[in-house]
Amino acid sequence: QQRDPNRRRAAIAGARAVAVPVIFAVLTTVAAFSPLLGVEGTMGKIMRVIPLIVIPTLLFSLVESLWILPNHLS
User: Fold this and answer.
1) Which of 14, 15, 22, 52 is 20 to 30 A distant from 68 in Cα terms?
2) Which range marks the domain in which residue 52 is found?
3) How far is 37 from 32, CA to CA, in rounded Å?
4) Could you tell me if residue 1 is inside a domain?
5) Is 29 a member of any domain?
6) How many domains does the chain have?
7) Which residues of the chain have pLDDT under 70?
8) Residue 36 has what pLDDT?
9) Buried b / exposed e across 20-52, counting CB within 10 Å, b at 16+?
């Protein structure tokens, strides 16, 4: 673990270091939940709620972890 006296620079460097793995983790999870949006019938009405909550939550979490949180930490 590296210490940087400049907190802002350290927060940005940390976010950049994990950006690609985090982005791909979120995108693969979004891709896994996306097919549930296409389920039809009664089961589709029940299952559709899950990706409608999970996908926006994951995308907001991605924005929070890569852009908002590093600014708060710096």
Assistant:
1) 52
2) 7-73
3) 11
4) no
5) yes
6) 1
7) 1-5, 73-74
8) 95
9) eeeeeebeeebeebeebeeeeeeeeeebeeebe
